[in-house]
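Task: sequence in, structure out. Protein: Lysine-2,3-aminomutase-like protein.
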Amino acid sequence: MPDTPRPAARTLRTVGDLVDAGLAPEGARSALEEVARHYATAIPPAFAELIEHPDDPIGRQVIPDPAELVVTAEERSDPIGDDALSPVPGIVHRYADRALLKPLLVCPLYCRFCFRREHVGPDGGVLDEAALERALDWLRDHPAIGEVILTGGDPMMLSPRRMSRIIRALEAMPHVHTIRIHTRVPVADPARITEEMVAALDTICSMWVVAHVNHARELTPQARDAIRRIQARAIPVIAQSVLLRGVNDTPETLEALLRALVSARVRPYYLHQLDPAPGTSRFRVPIAQGQRLLAALRGRVTGLAWPTYVLDIPGGHGKVPIGPAYLETMENTVVGVRDPRGRSHRVEEGDSAKLALPRRGR
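Result:
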C-alpha cells in the first residue's frame, strides 16, 4: 500500500488527489495535468482501497498515465462506430433486434482503456427529459427491437427514481421483452446498489445485469453483497471483462478472475479484445496471445466459467467470436479435433461432414 495516508473517504478526481493519496509522484504532476485536460479521472473510495501500488492490476486500470497521450495509427476516437450508428441522441442501433439506450455519460470511475473515453466524463451529463423522451419514442417506433441495453456511462449512476421511470417506459412497449444493464458500479462503488435501486429494476421484462469485472480482487465482500442484492430479486448477473496487459493477461490471473466470478454466482459472458481507443496501446494484448491464454485454461476451469472471447470489429461492424479453434479440416471436411492438451484425434463423419462453403462470385 502507498506510504502516504489517503484522505478521508471521497472519490479521487484531480491530480492533486492522486498525489495526496500516494498514487502518483509529485514529479509527474505536470504530465498528468496534461492528461487530465483530455480525459476524466474518478476513483471511488471502495476501488481506491484495493490499489496496492499505482501499476498493480487495480491501479493500472484507473490511474492516469502520460502514455495516454500517445496515439497509435490504428486507434480512433469512436472505435466501434457508436456515433455513426446513433439515429437520435442516446440511441445506438447496430443489430436488427436490439439497441443501446445511453441515458447518461457519467461513470463511478473512468477506466483508462475505455472505448468511450472521449465521450464520458463529469461533463457528459444526463439526457434531459426531452432528449430521453425522444430516445424512448425512437424505441417505441421500432417494433423489431426486442432487447434494450442500458449503458453509457453507467446507468447505475442514475437515481432509483429515474431508473424506475426508464424501466417502466420500456416494459410498456409491447415489443420489448428483454432489458440489459451494463454496469461497473457493483465493483467500483457497491454502496450505490441499494434496496431502492434494485427495487427500481423490478420488471415484467426479462432483466439481466452485466457487471464489468477485470480482476479477481475487484470481487470484494462489499461487491459480492451488492451482486447478491441484485440476484435476490431473481435478476441474473453475468460478467464481461476486457483482456488487459498487466491486469489479467496470464493464465493464473485470468483463471482466478473466472473462478471468482463463478463463486459469486456470476456467469462469465464476454472476454473482450481491447477496442482501439486513443492512448490505450499500453493495455493491448495480441489476439494470438489471448487465444493461447484461453486454450491454456481449457480443461482447467469449468465450462460455467468459460467466456466467449470477442472482437468488436472497428467501424461498427459488430462482435465476432475469436476464441481458439479445435477442429482440423482438410478439403472442406472435418478430419480431426485437438483436445485441451493439444493432441490431435481423428474424426470420421462421412460425406455429411463436408463444409458448405459459399461459392465465389463470377
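The longest helix spans residues 251-263.
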